Amino acid sequence: MSNAAAFVLAQARLLVTLLASITLAWLATAVFSYFDAQHELDELLDAHLAQSASLLVAQIGHELEEIDVEHAAVA
Fold this sequence. Notes:
The protein is mostly helical and 75 residues long. It is 96% helix and 0% strand. The chain contains one helix and no strands. The protein has one helix at 3-74. It is rod-shaped and about 105 Å long. The chain starts with a helix and ends with a helix.
């Protein structure tokens, strides 16, 4: 094998190694980003659910006060 052929073979191996490494790095970044975004979305939805529950509790409390006032006025 000549020096030129060995050089081309070494370039090809280097290119394949670099492309595989870059692909793996991008894949790892994509997987990490997906799970991080999923976690953040879960936190956002949990906060929204807690806010909705708080509003419902406040509304039910207000309605109970109205019922108590109505019954107190009748009695």
